[in-house]
Amino acid sequence: MSHHAPNALRDASLVDFASQADAAQRTSVIIEARRLPVTPSPQALARHTAVGPSELLPPPVHARGAAASALSEYPACDMNDLEACLSSLGLADDARRNDLNGSFVVEVTPPQLRVLAQAPSVQAIHSNRHHRRSVG
């Protein structure tokens, strides 16, 4: 039986873990929510295509109000959809949400990992080597 690894799984160890049948095993993973596409404004495209260093900096404090309200209307990623997916798998209560980088840290079983790897709200899944909980 040949099968390829889902695109969301970024570590070979996770691909191996997801292929296991033992649902009692758990591993800690970082699940990144899918980034929504960013469309540059027509004004930015009409101005020029090169990006100068000043355009890479955040806007001045007085100009941030409009940008902040635009961000709240259009979130950078599908955190709520991903949280709903985690909830449907019974994982939302134990998941640690990180809005700063649009991810959740959660312990999953191989079957749960396979479902998450196929979820449309998932951008990538990485091993969480730094915060793995010890079993015991």
Please sum up the structure shown:
It is built from six helices and four strands. The protein has 136 residues and is of the alpha+beta class.
Report on this model:
- This protein is α+β, with helices and mostly antiparallel strands and 136 residues long.
- It has helices at 12-18, 42-47, 53-56, 64-73, 79-88, 110-118, and strands at residues 27-33, 96-98, 103-108, 122-127.
- It has a 4-stranded antiparallel sheet with strand order 2-3-1-4.
- A hairpin with a 4-residue loop joins β2 (96-98) and β3 (103-108).
- The protein is elongated and about 55 Å long.
- It starts with 11 loop residues before the first helix and ends in a 9-residue tail after the last strand.
